[in-house]
Amino acid sequence: MIWIAAGVAEELEIKVEIPDRQSAATKVTEMLDAADLESLERRPPVVTIMGHVDHGKTTLLDSIRKTKVAQGEAGGITQHIGAYHVDVEHDDQVQQVVFLDTPGHEAFTAMRARGTRVTDIAVLVVAADDGVQPQTKEAISHARAAGVPLVVAINKVDKPEAEPDRIKQELTEQGLVPEEWGGETIMVPVSAIKGDNLDTLLEMLLLVSEVEDLYANPNRPAKGTVIEANLDKARGPVATLLVQNGTLRVGDCLVAGSSFGKIRAMIDDRGDRVEAASPSFAVEVLGMSEVPLAGDEFDVYRSEKEARAIADERTGRRRETRLQQALSSRRVSLSSLSAQAQEGELKELNLILKADVQGSVEAILGALNQLPQNEVQIRVLLATAGEVTETDISLAAASSAVVIGFNTNLATGAAPAAEQEGVDVRQYDIIYNLLDDIQGAMEGLLEPEEVEEALGVVEVRAVFPVGRGSVAGCYVQSGKVVRNRRIRVKRRDEVVYDGVLDSLKRMKENVREVAAGYECGIGTAKFNDWKEGDTIEAYQMVSKRRTLAVT
Ligand code: GDP
User: Fold this and answer.
1) How far apart are alpha carbons 132 and 143 in whole angstroms?
2) Gap between the Cα atoms of 154 and 57, Å rounded
3) In the sheet that 377-385 helps form, which strands lie side by side, from edge to edge?
4) Is 353 left (phi over 0), alpha (psi -120 to 50) or beta?
5) How far, in Å, is the centroid of ligand 1 from the Cα of 54?
6) Separation CA 24–CA 341 (nearest Å)
7) Torsion region of 304: left, alpha or beta (phi above 0 gives left; psi -120 to 50 gives alpha)
8) Quick one: pLDDT band at residue 546, thresholds 50, 70, 90?
9) Does the fold of domain 450-544 match that of domain 40-216?
10) How would CATH label the architecture of 40-216?
11) Distance (Å, rounded) from C-alpha 494 to C-alpha 514?
């Protein structure tokens, strides 16, 4: 299955180096380097299951594991390590799909907030006897914000009161149009409890993964993310590592976050001891010096010494900068946005909107749409009625978004979370003020415009030869003239020089500026063809904050 990179490398390189869809979101660590492009191979997709509570996420995960993993396995014993893989027959080949075992978008977004992206595809579970619920909408927003494709599993179709068509209709209202209705979203009716149609769901996941360019280079030291970690009384620190590039081997020396490890043993999701783990597979690893954090990245180093040194350095740095990190967060606030815009980082304003009632949500969305967006785009990641919750804060943190609350409160835990994550939460009770602030922030995102500001007008009254050139004896008619600023020399209506004023003298003394009503001598390095009667316009360029042009 070696993928010949040559022809497509260019295309892939673009994908690797410019994660377009993440441009506005938090910086995400790239797992691939340019050097990997030569030896890329396809890797299985890593899937997260999301959806509203009680719609069947856990049942679906268990059911897929049971039906697919137990087959042919001695005893069918599986180990809970935070992720598991299944084998699927697809295109006459056995391929794998890897599932992260923690359902829900909270975990998904919490990881993303730390700068890691582990999920390639999200399965959105919607119960056919219930429909689109608040957490369904949240899950959609979270997947969209991360740029992760969604496959919908319409679950519980075994129930007599199941109405899959109504679910499709409701999802269409959320912008997810089923393929059979001319849209792009794959929707598979399933019964998690009975195990019906799970094969189709898995096939669809493989289909989606085919267009997602999921590649890694197995022939290099491993790199990836910690997905679970804990301290086991008997075994010491235990961490489940998801390999995202390279191959992880027993004996490897690695650094995860600030902890060092020399891998003593690895156990896969089927409970077997293994010697190696390739891209997209998760293994439980023994031999870490401390328990790393879920979401920490890990890297394998060729030398133990180097790995130890890096871990030590990080431990020290982590201690020192824990507070600083919290403060100098990479999050945005309405006021820090313009600085980022000037660095060319941001031309999108990501918003999360929570309001008292759905009516207010619609009204505010309508008003936001009226704001001109030809230069700065407003991206509403989530807009629902309700309190501002901790999950909203982590979505905001993960996506560099600002949270706007209208006539609503912060749920318990949201305020400390916002403070810790450095998320800007703005509360309003007057729509006008809300729009005013947003417009202000968008204007801050526009690059300032350079505009000319007139300083004064000067008349040339005499010309004195100096060395090979000449200087103009002048009289300042109005305003002032300033050295090192710009002048425009006009002879009747023609501009004969436009440039910097290099030398300005008053009574033979070099001066910085001369005001109206005084005489002065003016010289420039680049122009000396002065004529009596020339007019000099003194001016400077200033940058001015632009306002949004209404189209
Ligand atoms: P979660 O909160 O999304 O993880 O949902 P659970 O997996 O815990 O499921 C919630 C309830 O729905 C449980 O009582 C399940 O037995 C039930 N359930 C899940 N899937 C199905 C299904 O396909 N058919 C039926 N009839 N019940 C299901």
Assistant:
1) 15
2) 11
3) 377-385, 348-355, 401-406, 425-428
4) beta
5) 6
6) 11
7) alpha
8) low
9) no
10) 3-Layer(aba) Sandwich (3.40)
11) 25
Q: Where are the domains of the chain?
A: 40-216, 218-324, 334-445, 450-544
Nearest atom in ligand 1 to the alpha carbon of residue 194 is 23
Ligand 1: residue whose CA is nearest its atom 22: 156
pLDDT digits (tens, 9 = 90+) for 231-278: 888 888 899 999 999 999 999 999 998 889 999 999 998 888 999 999
Reply yes or no on whether the pLDDT at 1 is more than 60.
no
**Against a cut of 0.70, is the pTM above it?**
no
- Choose the CATH number for 334-445 among 1.20.140.10, 3.40.50.10050, 3.40.640.10, 3.40.50.2300: 3.40.50.10050
Measured CA to CA in angstroms, residue 471 lies from 57, 321, 474 at distances of: 83, 58, 9
Residues with CB under 6 A from ligand 1: 51, 53-59, 103, 155-156, 158-159, 191-193
> DSSP per residue over 335-391, as a string?
TTHHHHHHTT---EEEEEEEESSHHHHHHHHHHHHHS--SSSEEEEEEEEES-B-HH
**Atom 20 in ligand 1: residue holding the nearest Cα:** 56
- What does the pLDDT look like over 402-416, one tens digit per residue? 899 998 888 888 988
For the CA of 52, the closest atom of ligand 1 is 3
